[in-house]
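so my prof wants the structure for this chain in the tokens format not the other one, which i didnt know existed until like an hour ago. anyway here's the sequence
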Amino acid sequence: MFGIENTSRRKFLAVAVALGSMTGCLGSTSERPGAVDSSDLSVSSRGSAKLTAKNVQNDNNNGLKISTEDSVADGKVVGEIPASVPEATRSSVYINADVDQLDDDAEIEIRFCSPNSSYRAIFVGNEYKGKESGVLATETGSGYVLREQIKKLPTAESKEQTQINDLDRVQFVVRDGDFTGTIWALWFIFEDRTVALL
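here's what i got, hopefully its the right format
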């Protein structure tokens, strides 16, 4: 949709490491294709929305803090990061995040996109209270955790399932308000391995 900056420095080398006490819960190996940081995020120049990102650390945990302002009402893609997750439809996505600011009408989508532009999404916002799968948070707070099979996540427009396979990017979409939050973990959990972007 728009160019990704600094992809040449990210080599997507899979490093297999033992998961210790997590073995059996998250699979036998962990593939970390280069920890995502703020320089990996490509920001759209279209529309009035502005997205910024910075690296943060808390208790030796590295996170990506994302803030938006002047959000447009029609839900434009305001940023994206590259990902390389083959056969992602066989995995569950795990996300751990804090929500520091969330305007009353703000709606945030974290989209997991395939090369053919199909996607599934996780949602943040007051509008999603009491709704179906894929809702991470509906108000500000810390330590929000969601684990859900990719194939069971809905799409944003129809809330219906759309077939995807490989993932090549993660997109951020904001409408009707501003948002600030930190993503501490973003994993794709398979039966035999875990692919960790954060």
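also thought this was worth mentioning. The CA atoms of residues 22 and 28 lie 8 Å apart.
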